[in-house]
Amino acid sequence: MEPMGEKEIRASFVNCSKGEASRINLPVGLDGLPWADLDFLGWRDPGAPDRSYIVAPRADGVVGVTLRVPQGVRRSFTKTTVCSLCVTGHPGSGVSLLAARKAGPSGRQGNTVGTYICADLACSLYVRGKKRSQLASARYEETLPLEDRIARIVMNLDAFLDKVFEE
After folding, report:
1. Higher-confidence residue: 22 or 70?
2. Which of 29, 66, 106, 152 is the most buried (most CB within 10 A)?
3. Cα Dmax for the chain
């Protein structure tokens, strides 16, 4: 992923108002992020733990979406769950159900779409072995080449983002 600045990130959001985008807490140290190892920029809002954000390059430009942990969702801290983007298994609360308000009129009516994603949104780093799940020792090693695992993240994220744009 190419490095991005604050203005480009804020302008990319498609499922919130410009005012809301201007108030998003961006990740600290944008200049120091491992951009070459990222397929998308994802972060949790440190001031509001139920809020997360994803900014991703797509064929038609950079797209940002706001995400929330749905209210009333019970989390099991004993089960193993798998991220729908990178297919990394995590114990307990290592994967979160995150919901994105849909873009456009559908989103203004309150419609959302959700998926299970690594709670820290570090999917790209897990796939590249730069970060390890707590299940790393018990995890089966994938035989899929790195390039194919990266393509899978991009494909899975694109499918989720397509749902954000669906009417």
Report:
1. 22
2. 66
3. 46
